Amino acid sequence: MNTQSHQPRRLRWRPSLRRKTVKRMFLFALVIGFVWTAGVAAAIIWYGQQDNAQPSDAIIILGAGVRPNDTPTFAQTRRTYQAYMLWRDGFAPHIICTGAVSLRSTISEAEACRRLLLEWGVPNDAIFLEEQSRSTEENAVYAQRLMDANGWRSAIVVSDRYHLFRANWMFSKTGIEAHTSPVTFVRIRPDIFLRSITREIIALHWQAAKDVIGLPVTSVPVV
């Protein structure tokens, strides 16, 4: 009789234990995910503060958009100006502008970059255009081809500080001797910076997953 009286309690207790275990595992996974994400964000921010510019064969500007009226966005302008200052200071004799034509403009990001450089006094024969890329990964792939065609091996990669951690990864995969240099003379609004960091975290995980699986995809509109 004792065995029969205790059996219902055991049956009632086991589902409760399972629920508690699942909850604990879920909370543990949340904590691990939070710590991991915070660590990745910290790495992105820390790396973006480092200016590693040194004398190189070329300066590569990562494209940052063109408005519908074919004028460069603020991000494109500040990246181009950072590259211009490096060129002016003698870090490299050549500048590579990257980026294809977007859906909302009639000129490429590379062409918008070139027009800015010409306005600031950079000679046309010092500017090279890479107008095929639609992502950071493609920036690296197509810039590497252009550099190989000209016999260049080293480059300073210029972009916003939140972008350079991933950009360095992409360029290192191509074999380019890349030295990153962030835009440092302008403050980005906190909400834009936070949104950009979030985007970079997602893009980094997408890139890692894509590499593991071996997907032959080099551009996605959201990354």
Short description:
The protein has 223 residues and is α/β, with parallel strands linked by helices. The chain contains 6 helices and 5 strands; from the N terminus they run αβαβαβαβαβα. Helix content is 55%, strand content 11%.
Give an overview in words.
With 223 residues, this protein is α/β, with parallel strands linked by helices. It has a domain at 58-213: 3-Layer(aba) Sandwich (Rossmann fold), CATH 3.40.50.620. Helices cover 55% and strands 11% of the residues. It contains six helices and five strands. It has helices at residues 2-48, 74-88, 109-119, 136-150, 164-174, 190-213; strands at residues 58-61, 94-98, 127-130, 154-159, 177-182. The protein has a five-stranded parallel beta sheet, with helices on both faces. Helix 1 (2-48) crosses helix 6, helix 2 packs across helix 3 (109-119) and helix 4 (136-150) crosses helix 5 (164-174). The radius of gyration is 24 Å and the shape is elongated. The N and C termini lie far apart (66 Å).
Which strand order does the major sheet show?
3-2-1-4-5
Roughly what is the average pLDDT, rounded to an integer? 87
Shape: elongated
CATH architecture of the domain at 58-213: 3-Layer(aba) Sandwich
Strand content: 5-15%
> What about the largest sheet?
5 strands, parallel
Secondary-structure-based class equals alpha/beta
Count of DSSP-assigned helices: 6
The CATH topology of the domain at 58-213 corresponds to Rossmann fold
Alpha-carbon Rg, integer: 24 Å
CATH structural class of the domain at 58-213: Alpha Beta
CATH superfamily of the domain at 58-213: HUPs
Q: Which blocks of ≥5 consecutive residues have pLDDT under 50?
A: none
Our measurement of the CA-to-CA distance between the termini, rounded to an integer number of angstroms, reads 66 Å
Strand tally: 5
Order of helices and strands: HEHEHEHEHEH
Fraction of residues in helices? 55-70%
